[in-house]
Amino acid sequence: MDNALSLLLLAGLGITAGMLSGLFGIGGGMVIVPGLFYLFGLMDLPHAALMHLAGGTSMCIMIFTAASSTWFHHCRGDVHWHIFRAIMGFIGVGVILGCLLANHLSTDWLELVFGLFLLFVSLKMLLDWRVMTKEASPSRLWLTALVGVVIGFKSGILGIGGGAISVPFLLLAGLPISQASGTSASFTLPIALIGTLACLLTPGATEAIPLTTGYIYWPAVCVVAPFTVLGAPLGTHLSHVLPGQRLKVAFALFLLFLGLRLSGSSFGHLLF
Question: What is the pLDDT averaged over residues 98-106?
Fold first, then answer.
């Protein structure tokens, strides 16, 4: 695939991920990681490094999107910084552990794990699983530590934000949805910073790939990141115009398709 087409597809991925983030309030990593995985394959990058590069590059891109999102939520007063301070150290430990494990897994195993995660998220959206929040859960250090490590570990191994776990946890702690989403968004910036540093320093099989440091492919960062920032406000505007429930179902079905494709393909490779 020639360079011009590669840049065009990367820009399209960025604007799509940003719009979906604005539409549904999700982190763009669920779209960016599989998108980069397939685009890197079309660009003839080594198969053995595809998922590692997709996850590491996604982490770096998240720095830009998370910074703007955190500032926006902070200005609205939706970030509980005392919760951030209490859990962030444990999240950092989890991110490092996730990155270390990802470095020891093959692309096929990472593809399978990511595919199963997308299947879980799509079913959650389709079945409309909700978290009951009539009573606030008591704050316990062991629970905070456990959830923090799990949030970070999932983010480190998959190269995405932690909202799928952190938002339900914060809802159970008694926060309203706007503050749960805002506080969860504040976790993403340090996750992205720690994850990016880990991916930069992780020795991998990417030394022969031009414009790559560790597991971060810089051309993709430079193209995708600004377009995600541009796409997010557009998605937020569309969320007030388009039929939300139909869009949610369509997006869930898209994630279901991606999850089945990723997990099915990787399972076949692992078996044969």
Answer: 90
pLDDT, position 60: 94
How far, CA to CA in Å, does 175 sit from each of 34, 85, 182? 32, 16, 10
Assess contact for 111 and 166: CB atoms under 8 A. Answer: no
Rounded distance between C-alpha atoms, residue 156 and residue 173, angstroms: 24
Amino acid at site 17: A
Sign of CA dihedral 188, 192, 193, 194: positive
pLDDT digits (tens, 9 = 90+) for 196-241: 999 888 766 566 788 898 899 999 999 999 999 888 778 767 766 7
Are 29 and 66 contacting, i.e. CB atoms less than 8 angstroms apart? no
The Cα 177–Cα 167 span in angstroms is 8
Q: Where are the beta strands (DSSP E) in 45-109?
A: none
Residues near 171 by beta carbon (within 8 Å), at least 6 away in sequence:
131, 133, 177, 180
Instruction: Quote the crossing angle between the two packed helices 177-201 and 141-158, to the nearest 10°.
Output: 50
Q: Tell me: the pLDDT tens digits for 121-172?
A: 888 878 876 555 444 444 567 788 888 999 999 999 998 887 778 877 887 7
